[in-house]
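Folds abound. Consider this:
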Amino acid sequence: MPARRHGLDDLDRAVLRLVAERPRSGLLEIARLLGVARGTVQARLDRMIADGVITGFGPELSPAALGHPVQAFTTLEVEQAAREHISAILEAVPELLEAHIVTGPGDVLCRIAGRDHEHLQQVIDRMLAIPGVRRSTTVITLSTVVPHRVMPLAGP
């Protein structure tokens, strides 16, 4: 098995950029645009997948377009011993977009989406009903200044 490389070279970054900008393009088209063989593009993608750089190819979905235009960040304070159990229950909440164990005054930072403010309150109430969750603090998002992104970390 070949040794894993760390970091990306210019061709890796170019492949990533094109896959991100043109997600519906095939490998042959990407290879043509980059002036390399299709097998080269395939090998680069396969390596970046194996190295964990690329974690998926699914479509990015809009919570608002799916009927959940209101988003909020909720910090949960939890009993530390129940954290694993709480995490498993949180995973079943469809309105929970992501959750992270964090440092600071709270324990679990959650990004949630709702149809409206009332629905958001229902989602928070469901999370508060989980045994081991003590309290929550929530801030509602008004607009997105910088959407979730990772591409800038890949380099210039």
